[in-house]
Amino acid sequence: MVRLEHVLDSWKAVREDTAAAVEEFPAGEFGYRPTADVMTFGETARHILQAGHALSGLLLSGEESFATPDFRAKLAPYLPDVPEDATPAQLAAALRDSLERRAAELRRVRRISTRTS
Predict the structure, then answer these.
(1) Is 112 helix (H, G, I), strand (E, B) or coil?
(2) Quick one: the chain helix, strand, coil %, rounded to 5?
(3) Is the pLDDT of residue 113 over 70?
(4) CA-CA distance, 49 to 56, in Å (whole number)?
(5) What is d(CA 2, CA 71) in angstroms, rounded to the nearest whole number?
(6) Taking the domains of the chain in order of start, what are their residue ranges?
(7) Which of 12, 22, 53, 83 is within CB 3.0–4.6 Å of 92 for a Cys-Cys bond?
(8) What is the CA radius of gyration of the chain?
(9) What is the pLDDT of residues 29-65, one digit of tens each?
(10) 117: helix, coil or strand?
């Protein structure tokens, strides 16, 4: 069985590396697109934030299947509120905040489920 704290520790390490990369990447290069068919660095950072926050929100809501036609619509209520023109500092802060909030929610759900089992 995978322990929640192990998963959260791993997620935190990866997320911290991501936030640090966002802070260290030159702000003037945030819109850099190496080829036309890939996201910019800024778009990638925003995607990581949105995906992690929305997917964990969907899991916390009790969703059991991600293989539904309306999957993207189900994610929408869980997208973090970050301005489209967020600065690197704002994105890095949002990455860290999202992780801390979701980790706390997951711990709370775990405590509740172990008490009722």
Answers:
(1) helix
(2) 70, 0, 30
(3) no
(4) 11
(5) 26
(6) 4-116
(7) 22
(8) 16
(9) 999 998 999 999 999 999 999 999 999 999 999 998 8
(10) coil
